[in-house]
Amino acid sequence: PPAGKQGQFLRGDATWAVPYTHPTTSGNKHIPSGGAAGQVLGYAAAGTAAWKTLNASDVGAAASSHTHDDRYYTETDVKNLIDATFLTKTFTGAKVSIAGKTAKAITINCTTPSGYTAIGVIGYYTGSTYVLPCRVAKGRMDVYNTDSNAISVTPTITMLYAKSGAV
User: How far apart (Å, rounded) are the C-alpha atoms in residues 144 and 97?
Assistant: First the structure.
C-alpha cells in the first residue's frame, strides 16, 4: 500500500478501505474464551456473557438437602398403607367333578374377616386348563368344562377385602 494507506486494502473499484472491524457494543460481543465441561453461558453485564456453573436454584430444582412433607410417600410407605388397608384371603372349595361340555355352579364359603368389607374376587383357580370361569361373584364360581371328558377340579377363590370405612 502507498504511504498513509497501511492497514487498508484496495477494493475492486480501485479505492482504499479499512478492513472490517467487528463492533464490540452491547449485543455484538463474542462468546468469551475459556469455559469448562458442565458450564453454560450466563449473564455478566449488559451485552456481556460469562461462563458459569449451573446451580439447582438456576433451573428451579430442589436443593440436595430437600425433604418432602407428609403429602409425599416412598414406595415402602405406599406398600405399608395398602397392606394396612387391604387384605387378601384365599378360600378353597371341595373337589368336584364336571361332566364334559357342561357348566356347573360351585359355591365356596367365603367368610369376611371382622372389621373388613369384601371388595370382590381378584383370582380363581380350578386346577385344569379345561375349566373356564364364566362368572365369579361372592363365593360362587360358574365353570364350564370345554373338554368332552369329565374332569375333577378343586376350585380356589382369592377375595380382596378393605378395612371397613377405608373405601
Answer: 11
